[in-house]
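Fold these two proteins, one after the other.
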Amino acid sequence: MTSDTSARPGAAYRRENRPSVPWTDMFVQGADGKDIRVRVYEPAARPSVTLVWAHGGSWTRGSIEGWHEACAALASLGTARIVSVGYRLAPRWLHPTAVMDIAAATLWAQKNYSHSIFIGGDSAGGTLAAGVALWFRDNGLDLDGQILAYPPLDPECTADSYRESRSFPPRSLLLDAWGEYVGSDTELRGRLYLSPLHAGKLSGLCPVSLIVGSTDPVRDDVEHFVKRLAASSVPVELEISPAVAHGHFLDSSPTNPVHRWIHTRLSNPDQPPATTDGETK
Protein backbone atom coordinates (compact mmCIF):
# COMPACT_ATOMS: atom_id res chain seq x y z
CA MET A 1 0.00 0.00 0.00
CA THR A 2 1.44 3.33 -1.01
CA SER A 3 0.32 6.90 -0.82
CA ASP A 4 0.43 9.96 -3.03
CA THR A 5 2.14 12.41 -0.73
CA SER A 6 1.66 15.65 -2.62
CA ALA A 7 1.12 18.67 -0.39
CA ARG A 8 -0.40 22.09 -0.81
CA PRO A 9 -0.87 25.11 1.44
CA GLY A 10 -3.99 24.69 3.53
CA ALA A 11 -7.05 26.86 3.14
CA ALA A 12 -6.37 28.13 6.65
CA TYR A 13 -2.70 28.76 5.91
CA ARG A 14 -1.12 30.43 8.92
CA ARG A 15 2.30 31.34 10.19
CA GLU A 16 3.22 32.38 13.69
CA ASN A 17 6.47 33.27 15.37
CA ARG A 18 7.34 31.67 18.68
CA PRO A 19 10.94 32.39 19.76
CA SER A 20 12.90 31.46 16.63
CA VAL A 21 10.35 28.83 15.56
CA PRO A 22 7.98 29.84 12.75
CA TRP A 23 5.42 27.22 11.77
CA THR A 24 3.30 26.50 8.74
CA ASP A 25 0.16 24.40 8.23
CA MET A 26 0.07 22.21 5.13
CA PHE A 27 -2.11 19.42 3.77
CA VAL A 28 -0.66 16.06 2.73
CA GLN A 29 -2.69 13.61 0.68
CA GLY A 30 -3.37 10.37 2.53
CA ALA A 31 -3.48 6.86 1.09
CA ASP A 32 -7.24 7.13 0.49
CA GLY A 33 -7.03 10.59 -1.08
CA LYS A 34 -8.14 12.48 2.03
CA ASP A 35 -6.27 15.60 3.14
CA ILE A 36 -4.13 15.12 6.26
CA ARG A 37 -3.05 18.34 7.96
CA VAL A 38 0.52 18.69 9.14
CA ARG A 39 2.17 21.55 11.01
CA VAL A 40 5.84 22.11 10.21
CA TYR A 41 8.01 23.85 12.81
CA GLU A 42 11.13 25.30 11.21
CA PRO A 43 13.93 26.25 13.64
CA ALA A 44 16.04 29.20 12.53
CA ALA A 45 19.15 27.01 12.33
CA ARG A 46 17.56 24.90 9.54
CA PRO A 47 18.58 21.57 11.07
CA SER A 48 19.51 18.56 8.98
CA VAL A 49 17.09 16.28 10.88
CA THR A 50 13.32 16.07 10.54
CA LEU A 51 11.17 14.43 13.20
CA VAL A 52 7.65 13.43 12.14
CA TRP A 53 5.64 13.48 15.38
CA ALA A 54 2.38 11.70 16.22
CA HIS A 55 0.56 13.24 19.19
CA GLY A 56 -0.88 11.22 22.04
CA GLY A 57 -4.46 11.25 23.28
CA SER A 58 -5.48 7.57 23.51
CA TRP A 59 -6.15 7.39 19.73
CA THR A 60 -9.43 9.24 20.31
CA ARG A 61 -8.34 12.73 21.35
CA GLY A 62 -5.45 15.12 20.85
CA SER A 63 -4.73 17.42 17.94
CA ILE A 64 -2.12 19.60 16.29
CA GLU A 65 -3.47 22.53 18.31
CA GLY A 66 -3.44 20.64 21.60
CA TRP A 67 0.20 19.68 21.06
CA HIS A 68 1.24 23.03 19.58
CA GLU A 69 3.02 24.52 22.59
CA ALA A 70 4.92 21.30 23.28
CA CYS A 71 6.01 20.84 19.65
CA ALA A 72 7.06 24.49 19.42
CA ALA A 73 9.06 24.11 22.64
CA LEU A 74 10.76 20.99 21.29
CA ALA A 75 11.54 22.72 17.99
CA SER A 76 12.95 25.72 19.85
CA LEU A 77 15.82 23.51 21.02
CA GLY A 78 17.00 23.78 17.41
CA THR A 79 17.88 20.13 16.92
CA ALA A 80 15.21 19.11 14.44
CA ARG A 81 12.45 20.30 12.18
CA ILE A 82 9.19 18.99 13.65
CA VAL A 83 6.32 17.79 11.45
CA SER A 84 3.26 17.37 13.68
CA VAL A 85 0.60 15.15 12.10
CA GLY A 86 -3.14 15.71 12.41
CA TYR A 87 -4.09 12.09 11.84
CA ARG A 88 -7.72 10.94 11.92
CA LEU A 89 -9.07 9.80 15.27
CA ALA A 90 -11.07 6.87 16.59
CA PRO A 91 -13.81 5.82 17.03
CA ARG A 92 -14.89 7.41 13.73
CA TRP A 93 -11.73 6.12 12.06
CA LEU A 94 -10.54 2.69 13.16
CA HIS A 95 -7.11 1.13 12.76
CA PRO A 96 -5.12 1.31 10.49
CA THR A 97 -6.33 4.76 9.34
CA ALA A 98 -4.14 6.71 11.78
CA VAL A 99 -1.06 4.59 10.97
CA MET A 100 -1.49 5.24 7.25
CA ASP A 101 -2.07 8.97 7.77
CA ILE A 102 1.23 9.23 9.63
CA ALA A 103 2.93 7.07 7.01
CA ALA A 104 1.73 9.49 4.31
CA ALA A 105 3.16 12.44 6.25
CA THR A 106 6.46 10.60 6.67
CA LEU A 107 6.67 9.80 2.96
CA TRP A 108 5.99 13.46 2.23
CA ALA A 109 8.79 14.50 4.58
CA GLN A 110 11.20 12.13 2.86
CA LYS A 111 10.23 13.58 -0.50
CA ASN A 112 10.74 17.18 0.63
CA TYR A 113 13.78 17.00 2.95
CA SER A 114 16.97 15.35 1.74
CA HIS A 115 18.38 14.36 5.10
CA SER A 116 17.66 12.17 8.13
CA ILE A 117 13.98 11.47 8.76
CA PHE A 118 12.86 10.11 12.13
CA ILE A 119 9.40 9.00 13.18
CA GLY A 120 8.18 9.45 16.74
CA GLY A 121 5.31 10.03 19.10
CA ASP A 122 4.16 10.19 22.69
CA SER A 123 1.82 7.68 24.33
CA ALA A 124 -0.69 6.46 21.71
CA GLY A 125 1.28 8.45 19.14
CA GLY A 126 4.34 6.38 19.99
CA THR A 127 2.34 3.21 19.37
CA LEU A 128 1.25 4.56 15.99
CA ALA A 129 4.80 5.59 15.09
CA ALA A 130 6.02 2.07 15.85
CA GLY A 131 3.36 0.73 13.50
CA VAL A 132 4.50 3.13 10.78
CA ALA A 133 8.10 1.92 11.17
CA LEU A 134 6.95 -1.68 10.66
CA TRP A 135 4.95 -0.67 7.59
CA PHE A 136 8.02 1.08 6.16
CA ARG A 137 10.15 -2.02 6.74
CA ASP A 138 7.60 -4.32 5.13
CA ASN A 139 7.38 -2.07 2.08
CA GLY A 140 11.16 -1.88 1.62
CA LEU A 141 11.33 1.78 2.66
CA ASP A 142 14.03 3.30 4.84
CA LEU A 143 13.73 5.35 8.02
CA ASP A 144 16.58 6.73 10.10
CA GLY A 145 15.06 5.90 13.46
CA GLN A 146 12.16 5.85 15.91
CA ILE A 147 11.81 8.13 18.94
CA LEU A 148 9.08 6.71 21.18
CA ALA A 149 7.87 8.17 24.48
CA TYR A 150 5.99 5.79 26.82
CA PRO A 151 3.94 3.91 24.17
CA PRO A 152 1.22 1.48 25.32
CA LEU A 153 1.74 -1.70 23.30
CA ASP A 154 -0.68 -4.36 24.57
CA PRO A 155 -4.41 -3.95 23.76
CA GLU A 156 -5.25 -6.35 26.60
CA CYS A 157 -3.03 -4.53 29.18
CA THR A 158 -1.95 -7.84 30.73
CA ALA A 159 1.46 -6.92 32.20
CA ASP A 160 2.01 -6.65 35.94
CA SER A 161 2.85 -2.95 35.69
CA TYR A 162 -0.75 -2.16 34.69
CA ARG A 163 -2.02 -3.62 37.95
CA GLU A 164 0.82 -2.58 40.25
CA SER A 165 1.17 1.06 39.18
CA ARG A 166 -0.92 3.79 40.79
CA SER A 167 0.23 6.32 38.20
CA PHE A 168 -1.71 7.71 35.25
CA PRO A 169 -3.17 6.29 33.05
CA PRO A 170 -5.19 3.62 34.86
CA ARG A 171 -5.62 0.22 33.20
CA SER A 172 -9.37 0.75 32.81
CA LEU A 173 -8.81 3.94 30.83
CA LEU A 174 -6.31 2.27 28.51
CA LEU A 175 -8.58 -0.73 27.93
CA ASP A 176 -11.42 1.61 26.96
CA ALA A 177 -9.10 3.57 24.65
CA TRP A 178 -7.89 0.44 22.88
CA GLY A 179 -11.51 -0.64 22.50
CA GLU A 180 -12.46 2.63 20.81
CA TYR A 181 -9.45 2.41 18.50
CA VAL A 182 -9.90 -1.18 17.31
CA GLY A 183 -13.49 -1.99 18.27
CA SER A 184 -14.43 -5.55 19.20
CA ASP A 185 -13.20 -7.19 15.99
CA THR A 186 -10.86 -10.00 17.09
CA GLU A 187 -9.08 -10.06 13.75
CA LEU A 188 -8.50 -6.31 13.86
CA ARG A 189 -7.07 -6.49 17.38
CA GLY A 190 -4.38 -8.89 16.14
CA ARG A 191 -3.28 -6.96 13.07
CA LEU A 192 0.43 -6.42 12.62
CA TYR A 193 0.55 -2.62 12.58
CA LEU A 194 -1.63 -2.23 15.65
CA SER A 195 1.29 -3.03 17.96
CA PRO A 196 4.90 -4.08 17.31
CA LEU A 197 4.42 -6.79 19.93
CA HIS A 198 2.18 -8.57 17.40
CA ALA A 199 4.96 -8.76 14.83
CA GLY A 200 6.31 -12.24 14.19
CA LYS A 201 9.76 -10.75 13.67
CA LEU A 202 11.31 -7.39 14.38
CA SER A 203 14.57 -7.79 12.48
CA GLY A 204 15.20 -5.17 9.84
CA LEU A 205 13.55 -2.35 11.76
CA CYS A 206 15.26 1.03 11.92
CA PRO A 207 16.96 1.94 15.25
CA VAL A 208 14.63 2.56 18.20
CA SER A 209 15.01 4.90 21.18
CA LEU A 210 12.45 4.70 23.99
CA ILE A 211 11.77 6.57 27.21
CA VAL A 212 9.32 5.63 29.96
CA GLY A 213 8.75 6.63 33.56
CA SER A 214 9.80 4.21 36.27
CA THR A 215 6.23 4.00 37.64
CA ASP A 216 4.39 4.24 34.30
CA PRO A 217 1.75 1.51 33.81
CA VAL A 218 3.12 0.83 30.29
CA ARG A 219 6.67 0.22 31.55
CA ASP A 220 6.49 -3.57 31.22
CA ASP A 221 5.24 -3.26 27.63
CA VAL A 222 8.18 -1.03 26.77
CA GLU A 223 10.72 -3.33 28.43
CA HIS A 224 9.25 -6.37 26.66
CA PHE A 225 9.54 -4.55 23.33
CA VAL A 226 13.15 -3.60 24.06
CA LYS A 227 14.10 -7.20 24.85
CA ARG A 228 12.55 -8.42 21.61
CA LEU A 229 14.32 -5.70 19.62
CA ALA A 230 17.67 -6.57 21.19
CA ALA A 231 17.13 -10.28 20.50
CA SER A 232 16.45 -9.36 16.86
CA SER A 233 19.69 -7.33 16.65
CA VAL A 234 17.81 -4.06 16.15
CA PRO A 235 19.77 -1.10 17.58
CA VAL A 236 17.74 -0.03 20.61
CA GLU A 237 18.17 2.27 23.57
CA LEU A 238 15.93 2.58 26.61
CA GLU A 239 15.78 5.23 29.29
CA ILE A 240 13.69 4.54 32.38
CA SER A 241 13.38 7.76 34.34
CA PRO A 242 11.77 8.57 37.69
CA ALA A 243 11.47 12.16 36.43
CA VAL A 244 9.15 11.24 33.55
CA ALA A 245 5.39 10.92 33.93
CA HIS A 246 2.94 9.66 31.31
CA GLY A 247 1.97 12.73 29.31
CA HIS A 248 5.16 14.62 30.17
CA PHE A 249 5.75 15.53 26.51
CA LEU A 250 3.03 18.19 26.85
CA ASP A 251 5.08 20.19 29.35
CA SER A 252 6.45 23.12 27.35
CA SER A 253 8.92 24.27 30.01
CA PRO A 254 12.65 24.47 29.15
CA THR A 255 13.44 21.70 31.64
CA ASN A 256 11.08 19.09 30.16
CA PRO A 257 13.05 15.82 30.51
CA VAL A 258 11.32 14.21 27.50
CA HIS A 259 12.21 17.12 25.21
CA ARG A 260 15.80 17.09 26.48
CA TRP A 261 16.00 13.35 25.87
CA ILE A 262 14.71 13.77 22.30
CA HIS A 263 17.21 16.60 21.78
CA THR A 264 20.05 14.31 22.89
CA ARG A 265 18.86 11.41 20.72
CA LEU A 266 18.73 13.61 17.61
CA SER A 267 21.92 15.55 18.19
CA ASN A 268 23.93 12.78 16.49
CA PRO A 269 21.45 11.36 13.97
CA ASP A 270 24.09 9.30 12.13
CA GLN A 271 24.99 7.40 15.30
CA PRO A 272 22.37 4.70 16.02
CA PRO A 273 21.62 3.70 19.60
CA ALA A 274 23.61 0.81 20.99
CA THR A 275 21.66 -2.40 21.41
CA THR A 276 20.76 -2.91 25.07
CA ASP A 277 18.99 -5.61 27.03
CA GLY A 278 16.50 -3.18 28.52
CA GLU A 279 18.64 -1.73 31.29
CA THR A 280 18.28 1.93 32.17
CA LYS A 281 20.63 4.24 30.35
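Now the second one:
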Amino acid sequence: MNWLAICEESALPVFGGIAAWVEGKAVAIFNLGEQGIFAMDNTDPATGVGVLSRGLICDLQGDIFVASPLHKQHYSLTNGQCIEDESLSVELYRIKCEQGKVLINTAIVGGINDE
Protein backbone atom coordinates (compact mmCIF):
# COMPACT_ATOMS: atom_id res chain seq x y z
CA MET A 1 0.00 0.00 0.00
CA ASN A 2 1.09 3.53 -0.70
CA TRP A 3 0.77 5.64 2.45
CA LEU A 4 0.97 9.43 2.30
CA ALA A 5 1.84 11.57 5.36
CA ILE A 6 -0.71 14.37 5.69
CA CYS A 7 -0.11 15.99 9.10
CA GLU A 8 1.27 15.60 12.59
CA GLU A 9 -0.88 13.52 14.93
CA SER A 10 -0.90 16.46 17.35
CA ALA A 11 -2.74 18.54 14.71
CA LEU A 12 -5.86 16.37 15.03
CA PRO A 13 -8.37 17.68 17.57
CA VAL A 14 -9.63 14.90 19.86
CA PHE A 15 -13.32 14.12 19.20
CA GLY A 16 -13.38 16.51 16.27
CA GLY A 17 -12.78 16.66 12.58
CA ILE A 18 -10.53 18.48 10.15
CA ALA A 19 -10.40 18.63 6.37
CA ALA A 20 -7.20 17.88 4.49
CA TRP A 21 -6.46 18.30 0.80
CA VAL A 22 -5.13 14.91 -0.36
CA GLU A 23 -4.15 14.39 -3.99
CA GLY A 24 -6.71 16.88 -5.28
CA LYS A 25 -9.54 15.78 -3.02
CA ALA A 26 -10.87 17.07 0.31
CA VAL A 27 -10.86 14.36 2.97
CA ALA A 28 -12.55 14.62 6.38
CA ILE A 29 -10.42 13.18 9.20
CA PHE A 30 -11.85 12.40 12.62
CA ASN A 31 -9.88 11.64 15.78
CA LEU A 32 -12.00 9.68 18.24
CA GLY A 33 -9.29 9.11 20.82
CA GLU A 34 -9.15 5.47 21.91
CA GLN A 35 -11.73 4.52 19.26
CA GLY A 36 -9.22 5.45 16.54
CA ILE A 37 -9.02 7.80 13.62
CA PHE A 38 -11.27 7.70 10.58
CA ALA A 39 -11.17 9.27 7.11
CA MET A 40 -13.92 9.82 4.57
CA ASP A 41 -14.64 12.05 1.62
CA ASN A 42 -15.45 15.54 2.92
CA THR A 43 -18.28 16.08 0.41
CA ASP A 44 -21.82 15.58 1.70
CA PRO A 45 -23.44 13.43 -1.02
CA ALA A 46 -26.89 14.92 -0.30
CA THR A 47 -25.77 18.46 -1.14
CA GLY A 48 -22.40 18.22 -2.90
CA VAL A 49 -20.89 20.63 -0.36
CA GLY A 50 -17.59 19.89 1.42
CA VAL A 51 -18.70 20.10 5.06
CA LEU A 52 -18.54 16.65 6.66
CA SER A 53 -15.36 17.48 8.60
CA ARG A 54 -17.46 20.02 10.53
CA GLY A 55 -20.19 17.52 11.36
CA LEU A 56 -21.17 16.24 14.79
CA ILE A 57 -19.89 12.82 15.83
CA CYS A 58 -22.43 10.50 17.43
CA ASP A 59 -23.10 6.87 18.32
CA LEU A 60 -26.30 5.45 16.79
CA GLN A 61 -27.42 1.84 16.68
CA GLY A 62 -23.99 0.67 17.88
CA ASP A 63 -22.04 2.42 15.11
CA ILE A 64 -20.15 5.73 14.96
CA PHE A 65 -21.57 8.38 12.65
CA VAL A 66 -20.90 11.93 11.57
CA ALA A 67 -24.00 14.11 11.14
CA SER A 68 -23.78 16.49 8.21
CA PRO A 69 -24.03 20.09 9.44
CA LEU A 70 -26.41 20.97 6.58
CA HIS A 71 -29.35 18.55 6.60
CA LYS A 72 -28.22 16.26 9.45
CA GLN A 73 -27.92 13.02 7.47
CA HIS A 74 -25.78 10.56 9.44
CA TYR A 75 -22.88 8.82 7.64
CA SER A 76 -21.18 5.81 9.22
CA LEU A 77 -17.48 6.23 9.90
CA THR A 78 -17.05 2.45 9.55
CA ASN A 79 -18.87 1.76 6.27
CA GLY A 80 -19.80 5.15 4.77
CA GLN A 81 -23.52 4.41 4.54
CA CYS A 82 -26.17 7.05 5.28
CA ILE A 83 -28.59 5.86 7.95
CA GLU A 84 -31.53 7.96 6.67
CA ASP A 85 -31.17 7.29 2.94
CA GLU A 86 -29.70 4.00 1.65
CA SER A 87 -28.97 5.60 -1.73
CA LEU A 88 -26.39 7.91 -0.12
CA SER A 89 -22.90 6.89 0.99
CA VAL A 90 -19.47 8.43 1.48
CA GLU A 91 -16.12 7.05 0.32
CA LEU A 92 -13.83 5.86 3.14
CA TYR A 93 -10.03 5.81 3.28
CA ARG A 94 -7.52 3.78 5.26
CA ILE A 95 -5.79 5.98 7.82
CA LYS A 96 -3.31 5.37 10.62
CA CYS A 97 -0.79 7.06 12.91
CA GLU A 98 2.87 6.08 12.98
CA GLN A 99 5.72 7.84 14.75
CA GLY A 100 3.60 10.94 15.38
CA LYS A 101 2.47 11.30 11.76
CA VAL A 102 -1.00 10.77 10.29
CA LEU A 103 -0.80 8.60 7.17
CA ILE A 104 -3.56 8.01 4.65
CA ASN A 105 -3.87 5.53 1.81
CA THR A 106 -5.59 7.29 -1.06
CA ALA A 107 -7.16 4.09 -2.38
CA ILE A 108 -10.89 4.15 -1.64
CA VAL A 109 -12.07 1.32 0.59
CA GLY A 110 -15.48 0.03 1.55
CA GLY A 111 -15.84 0.00 5.32
CA ILE A 112 -12.22 -0.75 6.23
CA ASN A 113 -10.34 1.31 8.80
CA ASP A 114 -6.72 0.38 9.46
CA GLU A 115 -5.39 1.81 12.68
